[in-house]
Specification:
Elements: H1 7-18, H2 22-27, H3 29-54, E1 60-64, E2 83-90, E3 100-106, E4 109-115, H4 121-132, H5 134-146, E5 150-153, E6 166-169, H6 171-177
Antiparallel strand pairs: 1-2, 2-3, 3-4, 5-6
Helix pairs in contact: 1-3
């Protein structure tokens, strides 16, 4: 049962950010398991159960990231990520080419959303359609702006193949919940 993240969760992630090496992590691995992985697995499990019950035809799998970075992609950074994420992807499609729902928690906070990492050709076609029909895109954005629960955000991408935006709970919606 997910009971929430604690201040220790944030402390562990900041510890990783400032001490990003395997020796430090080995000494703090149990803290990481207790403060980060246990609640993350609980949250992923509960949300997965909800998705399965609400949308059984989606055939979703849950994927929880690892703390260790891919050694092929360190680029001068330490071996550890300062965040953990999980996602729900369609079990039938290739994980990178299908839209997914995701949640991430780390040193800087948390985020959630839906999108593609590497969209298939149909996703790129959707982006081109919106680029070629700006009135249609503006209508969709007005509809999004009219509601208060989610905001459309994300880094600008210069590469056309990386299509997708991040939908996160808006500040007003988050404030209303607290």
């Amino acid at each position: 049962m997910f009971t929430g993240y604690t201040d220790q969760t944030v402390d562990v992630f900041w510890g990783i950010r400032f001490n990003n090496d395997r020796a430090w992590f080995a000494e703090h691995k149990q803290e990481f398991q207790d403060a980060v992985m246990t609640p993350t697995k609980a949250l992923a499990g509960e949300l997965y159960g909800w998705f399965q019950e609400a949308y059984p035809d989606l055939h979703l799998n849950v994927h929880i990231s690892r703390i260790y970075r891919d050694a092929r992609r360190l680029f001068g950074r330490g071996p550890l990520n300062d965040h953990i994420w999980f996602s729900f992807q369609n079990a039938i499609e290739n994980r990178g080419e299908a839209p997914c729902f995701w949640f991430q928690v780390g040193a800087d906070g948390y985020g959630c959303g839906a999108g593609w990492w590497m969209p298939a050709a149909s996703g790129v076609q959707l982006r081109r359609m919106l680029d070629n029909d700006p009135k249609r895109a503006e209508k969709l954005l007005r509809q999004l702006d009219a509601q208060q629960e989610y905001t459309l955000s994300g880094p600008a991408r210069s590469e056309e193949r990386r299509v997708g935006k991040v939908c996160t709970p808006s500040t007003s919606a988050a404030a209303a919940r607290s």
